[in-house]
Structures
1.
Amino acid sequence: MTLDEMLASLFPDGHDVRNDHSVLLGSGPLRTGGRALVIGIADRAAVGADEAIRLSSYVLSSIENGSGPILVIVDSDSQRMSKRQELLGLNEYLAHVAKCLIYADMHGRPTIGILYGHSAAGAFLATALATRVLVGLPGADPVVMDLPSMAKVTKLSIEVLEEKAKSTAVFAPGLRNLAQTGAVHITWHEAVPLVDQLEALLGDMPDARDRRDALGKERSGRLKAADIAERVRGLALQAR
Amino acid sequence: MSAAHTQRAKLRAGRDGTVSWVEASARTRVRLLLDAGSFLEFIGPEMREVSPHLQVFDLPEQFDDGIVVGRGSLDGSPVFIAAQEGHFMGGAFGEVHGAKLTGLLRAARDIKSIPVLILFDTGGVRLQEANAGELAIAEIVRAVIEARSAGVKVIGLIGGRSGCYGGGGLIAGCSSALAVSEQGRIAVSGPEVIETNRGVEEFDSRDRALVWRTMGGKHRRLLGGADAFVDDTVQDFRDAALELLRSAGDFGIDTLKAEQFRLEERLQLFGTCPDAVDIWKAEGVPDADAIPALPADQFISLADKVRRISRDAR
Amino acid sequence: MEDLSFSHKARQRAVGTKNMAIIGVVASGNLEVLAERVLPDTECLVEIKTAAEGFGDVWDAVVADFVERTSPGGLKFSINDGGARPDTVSLRLAQAVRLMEEDDQ
């Protein structure tokens, strides 16, 4: 699905989402009334400080203005890799986007990530992975660590890595593995209008509590994380 | 000399030896940072909660999966603490490693009155468990913000051999305040990754001076990416932790707005500077070229004069 | 990865009241040793998981020498090894016993 096709399917009655140098901003009406704020990254663009500062600005302005959900639409590369980005403190810019999104989610503007293309590493963390619910569209290809880079570091062939990836969802790229480990909550269907699927999701939103580790356990993608976190939390509460 | 610096110097004068932070293991840092004998570990090595994902790669496990978490006291007050072991798998985040920190932060959020010290020493996501590591970082980021929203101070200490890279850099950026030493580095992409992707002209990963100017503790302090610069000793990190716990601000919409303003201004002021030295000069640092060689205490005095730390942002 | 296990009789009980100690880090050329006071006074056990395969005889000798010298009765040592040299192994085992000799706080 192209960006325009996706936006048209999400908002069949029209929307005002604009693509300005690969940073998306706009809004669209919801069937249930009100409007959703739409922000995001398009064109598989790398996310640097210059993109991040705009995203955080849009999210911040929305927190005290309006009450609909925020859709975070993502087709990005990884974080922008350059001397300049690190010189300027890229980690702070990306962290700030995540902070704003999480704060918005905790204060009346539930966040829904929609991964329709690619995303990787730091860009993924700052955007799609900083939402309350992450939706994947068929064809999306999130990558935390690509197999060629992994092959180089581990000195194992791609074929060997692909073989190992058959029995675990924890390292190989792709929507299915990210759903199984709990990152992606739902994968939407191409054949059903996205506006319908969005309405269904909005009518059944989970509360603002991070359940991704529990989801990963339910789906047998991450068997230890939820239990270890809960055990540590329990021990810490007891130790007072 | 600033008042805080004089006080630090006085405390140091009475001590008998100072242990190097960068040379110490995670366990040693925790033991010496906290009040003697106060540390209680959660899911210690005897529980043998190792990574389930390393055997398939024929890699050795560590009983604590490379992170020590627990609680203790700092100058008599309770703290939660997490320390990454930078020598095990580069301190990288794996499923179990990350979950231990997530659980600690969620407890802090629920209790509301006990701060968290995170002793970062990490290259980022552990590639053998990349998806689990990335998710762990995302969950930690969420847990940090929830804890801070509940009034908890989350203080990061950065000075280990692996630095604070990748997703670790994002968690650090979400913290209430950071202390960093000369050995500490904070970045999202590591030097080798930038060179591999963009070429050696863009970033020569073997140029150590370049790496430190761009990502190292002194630059982060002068840029405002870290709040305190400390010498490479456990004592200095302890003093800084106490000071940051005292002075770090509350978290809310005003903090986020102040941060937005601070980061926008940084782009306007320094967005076209080709190198760290140009940023330091633009900030009015006298004799900017001499910064890298400046000893810690002189650097601290200079930094305190040049850049007042804003308590209302981050 | 290779798993090894060596059980020995010890002349006497390892002194001290501590029940658990940990020393070392798993990294190239290094190892961690977890010591636990869980066995009868005259027994000791060393279990090893190592990344360097085929050195069973060397481990056997190092462990036997260590048991003879320090007599760590009652202690079980669990090792995760990243390919350490024999002298580093001996050092860590000795450090582990010394930690166990301390009194519990």
2.
Amino acid sequence: MNRSAYYGLGWRTLAVACAAAPVAFLGLFFFYPVINIVVSSLSQGWTGFLDIFDSSRARNAIWFTTWQAAASTLVTVVIAMPCAALMARTSGSAGVWLKALVTVPFVLPTIVVGGAFKELFEGLNGSVGFPNLNHTAGAIIVAHAFFNFAVVARTVGAYWAGLDHQLEEQARTLGSSSSHVFWRVTWPRLKPAVFAAAAITFLFSFTSFGVVLVLGGLRQATIETEIFRHAVVRGDLATSASMSVIQIGAVLCLVAVTSRLERRTSVSTQMMRSTIAPMRTTTKTTIAVFSLIFLGSPVAVMIERSLKAADSYGLQNYAALFEKIPQLPTTSAEALGNSMIYALIATAIALCLGVVCAITIVTRHDTMSRFFDLAATLPLGVSAVTVGFGILISLNRSPVDWRTSWWIVPIAHAIVALPFVVRSIVPMLRQIHPSIREAASLLGSSPLQIRAQIDLPLIARGLTVAAGFAFAISLGEFGATSFLPRRADTLTGPQAVFRLLSTPGDLLRGQAMALSVVLAGAVAAAVICSEILSSGKKRRREVDLPIGS
Amino acid sequence: MLATRHDLIRVIPAEEAMRRINVLMGSIGIAMLIITACGADNAAQEEADEVTLTLVTHDSFAISDGVFESFRAETGITVEVLTSGDVGSLVAQTILSAENPVGDVVYGVDNTFMQRLLDSSAIEPYEAPALTDVPDQFELDSTHRLTPIDYGDVCVNYWKDALSGPPPTSLMDLVSSEFKSSLVVQNPETSSPGMAFLLATIAGTPDWEDFWKQLRANDVTVTNGWEAAYYGDFIAGGGSRPLVVSYASSPVAELIYADPPVDEPPTGVLLDSCFRQVEFAGVLAGTAHSSEARLLIDFLLSDTFQNEIPMNMFMYPTSSTAELPPAFAQHSQISDTPLSLPPAEIEANRQQWTERWVEIVLG
């Protein structure tokens, strides 16, 4: 008691200061703009809001958005779980390459992925019994699974590796079959990570824009595409704002449900050093080959096209990245450089805010925890149009006349990446047994020391995953960026790809493919670097860790 | 058990831990610093004596590097270009920020969206002297708030080698059995060329609803955007359809960016299907630099700027004194009698027309 009083003042001030940072940041750059645009649009007429529920088109959009997001989540979890199991067991360079591969889809342009899948579907269509998914809800669902594969595989994989595997060993020793062990012993403890990953996948699919427009059929409108249509094509901001309110409401419900599930199922472990049960080589190979084909085929198509020059193959398209062409305000290489800088800034901001949010969510069992949970997840569930227009009319006057500053772009990226960061870390933090913190406290550690010496090192694996996501999200971000007024020379990589693809001509298309390949390579390199850095640290830690059992 | 836990808390040495905390806090600090620094930066720029004009435009804007430099050499005014989204998004943003505009001049609003902007108070009137060199057909705003800068046509393109017979010559050819399963168009609700083609059919066929019913019966394919049509279903991207809704200048782009180089564009244009798109610029009401902004409008109509339009944006200059580059002069086909509709009529009927289109084509 005395001790907590002694440490209390300093720690509490620090805790409040830390917690205030994300609140201030999200408040200024997300909540204020969103609330401002919604309120000011709705003040033009509330009738729009009532009309929505009368319109069968809007009702269909709401229904379609919900079911396709649910189906996408289910499909993603089912096909990515084997890869998560593989990742939990794969260390060394094979593991690093696998992690890099699954993260690449985030930066692939939807139109390129769409083209690759279209060819794939048309190819498969010939084979017996495979339905043609082109321009169907099926195509949207498969594409969502493609983009979110990493969310499930990496979040669950990292969490799985950190489980205490002794329980499985004991169950096996007692004679349980391996499927029995999985369903009775492993699965119940994996649930928090699965729910966390599923929540992100659901939100990503719920607010997906490009995938729905490029791959979906024409009648498949989602809430997100309807918000765009009303605001941009029709100029009807009141209806668009009403749709935004419905979207935000749905997202709030979802976050409330999943965070409840995540909490209820979370099991802390004693963090004992134990070895995960090995997998049969044939199983490993099957999973690896499946993941490689599913994730690798669009990448392969892209690489092939990027190398195609005139009638042969060559590196001309890559050389063109350094040439200034009239269609772009900068060279593709400069756009790539801009993207890299934005991605580094966005990753730094998202990680800092994400760690503070995650610690607050896990350690405060009250309204504050719930508030942070909602606040940190909501950005993924709000339409890019709403956020972009919100910033335009909100950060427009001194002292916050920032809407045209270049750094508003990496800040927008950080806000989009924040939910990924928080959801990668929260399950890991919950995994830490409270008795470890209690013991540390009992032995005289201050709360700050507990954070620094227990929480941070034990979630290092989660932080690596989170950093990879944040970097990839920023590097591939297109929607939110395009609704912000930007200086022409601050073009990002994905925008350059889009512009190259919006004028006909083989050379422009070749260059767009080469730029996409370089973007994918940059993400892969970033993931590999962060893995090597963190595994270096892990090895060091193992030396001074005399844990045994 | 307790001993084990005791070991556990010594996961990393205290110094290491403090270092990491410092790094964390440092990063937050740096982020905050960047923010304040940038804020200060902007303020410093505003205080400078020299006038900087901001030109707000859409994402398809492109112009050669030195063009605004020559404007600066003439007038001492620096031009900064801000881009944001497509035409629809540009118009929505301009209206949203009318009270406190993002820049001084808006450029790139077309005749399918201009009425929405004219109905707002976002633009100041200005009649540029150089309008005398602009043919009357482009002057669609009698209040002289929007000045025509460039134009282009949205037309059906065909892939020459993929046609067994002669190419189509009229809109009505598209519904004939000869061109069954040949055409790919864009959804007018999500695509600007898609909207332009719908307007072309409204202006150019006796009964557009019946035309689309026949087009549907003739197995037309619809995509949500230009990219998915051109690079998805059209021959150019490996698709199977020889006809696509694109731009009158697309064949020139196919020629200039061909790989390997070719002497003739692989595509041609159905001139009877062309809908005229005119892009305008205007002085944003509330600018602090109204007179400088007018100079910029004059500059956009000058030959220096007008001559650059074709190769950069694949549009055509409105000024009759501008010259077309050789590739355009030789290979581009532009309709003498394009299809067109009054902007006010487009704005008033957009919703009704697109909803009817959805019922006919997608219903």
